[in-house]
Amino acid sequence: MNVRLLSIEDVKNSKYLREGKKNLLLTPVGVCDTTALCGVLKNAVKTKYGPNISIDDSTGNISITCGTFNKKLQKSAEKIAEKFKKKKEEIYLLVYANPYETDRLYLNANNDNSVLEVDKKIFKEFHRMRENAKEHLMQKIGVLKKEENIEKEISKPMQEVEKPKKEISEKEVIELIKKLDKGGGVKIEDLLEIENKIYELIEKGELYEPLAGFVRVV
After folding, report:
1. Full-model pTM
2. Residue 58 has pLDDT above 60, yes or no
3. Domains in the chain and their CATH numbers?
4. CA 79 to mean position of chain CA atoms
C-alpha cells in the first residue's frame, strides 16, 4: 500500500492512472494507490454500494463510498452515518481511500479501519504533518527534476550548450534604475535578476532605499 497524505484540493488536482490491475493516482506529490484524507463530515447517505460520506477539510469537499467490498467497514460507516443524523457537534473523520475512475474520479474506502472518527486535535495534527510531508516531497521532486535537467544539459552537443550570459555592470544597473524611476523609486522585486548587484551598490552608497523594497540612485 502506497499512501499519500493529501488535501482534498490535492486529490482534485490529481490524475487517475491504470497500471495492469492497479488503480493509481498521480498527485502533486507523487503516485499513490491510497489517499489519506482528514476532514469534517458534511453529509452521509446510504447507497446500494455502501454509505457515501462527504468530508470537507477547508480546501474542498469530496465524497467517498465506504465498504462496497467490506461488510465490516460498511457497518462501521453506517454507524457513523446514524450518528451524523443525530449530531450535536462536528464529526472529524480520517479516511484511507482508493481511487478508481469510470466517467469521473471516485474514491472508495474498503479496508478494515479505513474510516476512523478522530478529534479536532488529530485533524490539526494530520494537516500539519501533511504540509510538512508535501514540502519535503516537493523539494525531492524539484531536486529530481533539477538532476534530470543537468543530465539533459550534459548530453547536449557542444554547439547547443548556451554560452553564459554577460554579467551586467554596476554602471548599467544605475542607468537602468534611473530609466525606470518615475519619482518614487523602483521595486527591488522588479529587479530580481540583478538583486545581488543592487545590494552591493547600496553598500557602496550608490543607491539607497527611500522605502523598504524600493531603490533610487543617490
Report:
1. 0.64
2. yes
3. 3-135 (2.40.50.140), 170-217 (no CATH)
4. 33
